[in-house]
Amino acid sequence: MDGQLQQYLPVLILLGVAVAFAAGNLVLSKLIGKRADTNPTKDTPYECGMPAEGEGAPRMSVKFYLVAMLFILFDIEVIFLFPWAVVYKDMLATNAPLIFGSMISFIGILLVGYIYAVKKNAFDWKR
Q: Among the four 1, 39, 52, 75, which has the fewest Cβ within 10 Å?
């Protein structure tokens, strides 16, 4: 067990160096950085020499985010199903009912999510 933990020591050192570097840059820029005088004219948004009109970014429809979340849901399903399907024959030799039952429960949970999305009209693209 001690040998396995020693394998992670370089990764932890690298993580510590990265965090120290980021924190050091922030602290140094705050300590020795030039303080800018704020000017309301210079702080206004600038685009092609013309004054800005309207909001900077238009509001996105909630439908866009719903479609993105559904895509992530089904994408993760495929990510988990693919390796399982690749080694399914090898797993059947060891403990078939447990392996098959765990995958059926996983698909069942996803099916509940799919039914919920259908009931909420998440797939109605015209709304």
A: 1
Q: Is 52 part of a structural domain of the chain?
A: no
CA atoms within 13 A on the CB side of 74: 8
Q: Is residue 41 part of a domain?
A: no
| Per-position pLDDT tens, the chain of length 127 | 577 888 889 999 999 999 999 999 999 998 888 777 778 777 776 667 676 676 767 777 777 787 788 888 888 888 888 887 787 777 777 878 888 888 889 889 888 988 988 888 877 767 5
Q: Where are the alpha helices (DSSP H) in 1-127?
A: 2-7, 9-32, 40-43, 62-86, 88-119
- Phi-psi region at 108: left, alpha or beta (left = phi > 0; alpha = psi -120 to 50): alpha
Residue range(s) defining the domain that contains residue 12: 2-35
CA distance 76 to 69: 11
Report the residue count for the chain.
Answer: 127
